Amino acid sequence: MSEVRAFGQGRGGRRLAGGLLALALLGCDEKKTIGPSLVYKGPVMETTNVLELFSDSAKLKMRLTAPLEQRYENNDVVYTKGLSVTFFDKDSKTVINTLTARYGKYEQNKNVFTMRGSVVVANVPEQQKLFTEELFFDRGKQLIYTTPQMFVKVLTPTERLTGTGLTANQNFSSYRITHPEGVFAVDQAGAP
């Protein structure tokens, strides 16, 4: 005949149960991780169909729209599906210029937007447009600029200008191409 005992019955069973409990407690104290710990670096918030209004002294200065906005822990914002920025005159009703791009990033610590992919700046009153592939907009200094080697094309009602490098005011009413090329209109009245 064989003897069958349930776990925990008899003297030996109590010792075995106590030993297993001690091992379980010791195992809980030591936490071993396998491999490097992973840190999430992605967006902490995503918003679709974004409409942001920026004002100064209760007057609308800028409107930003985007299909998708991703905010990160450091307060940087990325617009992976493009964005459009509209600048307004002092009356908050008249559009001065627009800026569109296929991709955008706002760096909080620099207060600078980086725009990439089919970037277009259009000054509505002056009827002039800027075309480039990468552009920076410094909100603090109210400047629009490119790197010196970035190709730019500016179209006005009377001129077609191309070159590399550009610096302009926020309204794109005044600009300077670093290395200009293209067709220039010359005022014959001022020529000697």
Q: What descriptive keywords fit this protein?
A:
mainly beta, 192 residues, globular, lipopolysaccharide transport protein A fold, twelve-stranded antiparallel beta sheet
Task: Please give the structural blueprint.
Layout: H1 10-29, E1 45-56, E2 59-71, E3 77-79, E4 83-88, E5 95-101, E6 103-107, E7 112-123, E8 128-138, E9 143-145, E10 151-155, E11 160-169, E12 175-183
Antiparallel strand pairs: 1-2, 2-3, 2-4, 3-6, 4-5, 5-7, 6-7, 7-8, 8-9, 8-10, 9-11, 10-11, 11-12
What does this structure look like?
- It is a single chain.
- By secondary structure, the chain is mainly beta.
- It has a domain at 45-147 and 167-173: Lipopolysaccharide (LPS) transport protein A like domain (lipopolysaccharide transport protein A fold, Sandwich).
- The chain has 1 helix and 12 strands, in the order αββββββββββββ.
- It has one helix at 10-29; strands at 45-56, 59-71, 77-79, 83-88, 95-101, 103-107, 112-123, 128-138, 143-145, 151-155, 160-169, 175-183.
- Strands 1, 2, 3, 4, 5, 6, 7, 8, 9, 10, 11 and 12 form a 12-stranded antiparallel β-sheet that branches.
- A hairpin with a 4-residue loop joins strand 7 and strand 8 (128-138).
- The N and C termini lie far apart (128 Å).
- Mean pLDDT is 83; it is low at 1-14.
Give a short overview:
With about 190 residues, the chain is mainly β. The chain contains 1 helix and 12 strands, in the order H-E-E-E-E-E-E-E-E-E-E-E-E.
What separation lies between the terminal Cα atoms? 128 Å
Mean pLDDT: 83
Instruction: Give a short account of the largest sheet.
Output: 12 strands, antiparallel
Radius of gyration: 32 Å
Q: How many individual β-strands?
A: 12
